[in-house]
Amino acid sequence: MALLQITEPGQALDPHQRKRAAGIDLGTTNSLIASVRGGVTEALPDMEGECLMPSVVRYAEGETIVGREALDMARKDPLNTIISVKRMMGRGIDDLLSLGVRLPYEFASSDSGMPRIKTVSGDMSPVEVSAEIVKKLVGRAVASLAGDLDGIVLTVPAYFDEAQRQATKDAATIAGVEVLRLLNEPTAAAVAYGLDTGSDGVVAVYDLGGGTFDISLLRLNKGVFEVLSTGGNSSLGGDDFDQKIAEWVIGQSGFEGQISPVQFRSLMLKARETKELLSESDAARVDIETEGLSFSGELSRLQFEQAIQPLLEESIKACRRAVRDAGLDLSDIDNVILVGGSTRVPAVRRAAGSYFQTEPLSNIDPDKVVAIGAAAQANQLVGNKPDEEMLLLDVLPLSLGLETMGGLTEKIIHRNTPIPVTLAQEFTTYKDGQTAMLVHVVQGERELVADCRSLARFELQGIPPMVAGAAKIQVVFQVDADGLLSVSATELSSGVAARVEVKPSYGLDEEEITSMLKDSFTYAEADAQSRMLNEARVEAGRVIEALGNALAADGEELLSAEEIWLLQEAMKRLESLAEQDDAAAINTGVEMVGKASEEFAGLRMDASVRQALAGHKIDELEEGTN
Amino acid sequence: MDFKQDYFEIFQLPRTFDLDLGELGERFRLLQKSVHPDKFSSATSKEKMLSMQWATQINAAYTTLKSALPRAVYLLGLEGTDLSDNPILDPVFLMEQIDLREQLEEIEQLEGPVSTLDEFKVEVKSVVQSLERDFASSYSGGDQAKAEQAVYKLQFMNKLLLAANTVEEKLLDY
To answer: Residue A441: inside a domain, yes or no?
Structure first.
């Protein structure tokens, strides 16, 4: 969705301008933003010098507070202070309850099943809450980079499904910033390590955050980061460790009765404190007094480790499956990288180290490593040329399929398939004379549709009546490099077709996003027309720059002088259009240049493919595979 | 973009079953380096579309060629062979299959231990390897019928391995 312009119209036309890009790690507990400045990739601190910002949003009368200040108010005002919102992203209210996540909020009913949290500022969806966190971080980057951002890379747990990914992307859109790419957190961490050490091999990234666990196996080879497999559990994290401590405290205190929101928040904050103490010492004192629930005692590290043992085993199971899916043996894995604040818990380090039979690496701050990797990729995607070019080749984390007769799932694309990918499968009708077919797209590994995630439903109508089994309906799944899916269905004999960009349930629709954008403070004054004009100019600038670069690089080799002249004329016309105030005319100009350069684009791509293997000698290969 | 190229031509590798997988991986990465959509994030929409198509095609080619069974099926497809859904297999092989299935069921019923399942998988994989060698020699020797038989057997073994993985997931409660 291209709704917002990022740079001033004039700036985008200057090809030599270094672009501003950032990587954002939107964590369950903490979030942060990083950027490449003067060749160094680093996390950006706030005014107090803190890089980590608690992922907490407090809605107060007339204002919205984000970060540390909001967290400080969590005990006093639990209903208006939203913590761990990431656990709610892309999930329906029923999902949340079935996960057993304790949420001390009041929910408003909504038609879509998407949770809306009641606050003093109105009902808020998790996407809007996350957008506040993104906005705050972007503000920090704008201040320290002295200018608006051209784009960001936003990280998500590798194990996030379509709905969770889309919700995360929507949050950035509402915050008014262009998302260059959604990047999987473990992949981002591997990038940071790979660029840091420059060494090749197979690495396992064990990423235990506040609310999610991810395991990814990657092969690093001369700047190419190839994800071999990924797995995890999108509801396992440090929050669950806290929960174990809280349960222990409740049990010890002898308190019986309903835990109130204030008690819950106090318990969880105390639990987190205790957990952090136990990473440093063998025992921790726990003193708590909240609304009649009181306890004073000591928790030993051993007791704590016994309590979280089942959670650690869950994480190791996921590792085992990821190793199997990658077709690797444990001995093939050269290094294990620890990511996420929860890997500071010594029992976690031990569990990862003992399973992978190697001492895990954590020499880059596990809280910052994801944002740093994301910033490096953002810098490259936005068009700045870094010293070391890299390429990330990712996979689909969860299988995608369709519902067939009897509520069964037919997998179309299996998990861990490299993306982008396009796959087609043929289906047929069940009844004589059937003229419509419901296409129900699901995600997950289980056999029954009921156990998988429902992503979208659409109907293919107008199938010519035939006997059962005679119609041939081809369903095509296409997943792009962001991991986002589109599905189309065609009846092959008649050519009747239907197509959807999959917009998962519990997401926001375009209208909601647009209206949230309008409501958003930053853009309240911007009037739609001038925004459209600016967008058109930015796009014109982008096209002129791209084609100019392409002509400079390959024009003389691939085109005749006349063809070059024609393209240059088209660019000149667009340049002069961009100086005028007619958005529609500029857009037409952009289209004309696009059309005129289509053949050139094809020639360039073919040439580049030929070139890729042309200079490739056998001895180089042998060196590369060592 | 030339969609008439077969998967071996895409990588400029000889059309053979005995592929150097290290070299295949190397060429895969080189090609993706030149076509992947990330390299075209500020390009024209036509270039973006071409880049997406190429990256998709190269992924499909790589996924097919890097594993033995899909590679074998693909090779036979290039020769114009239509594989049967209900092949006739020799009785000795079928008896072995029944035996292996029974072993797997037993492991499932006894609920482990997982090490027994691991041993079972090692056994199955050694059968798979010898079938792959059968295929390689029949295919390179031009014995179409024998190559086809090897593929049918490999398909059986592949299904068995998938079933073993399902049992593993049950045992480990993934």
So the answer is: yes
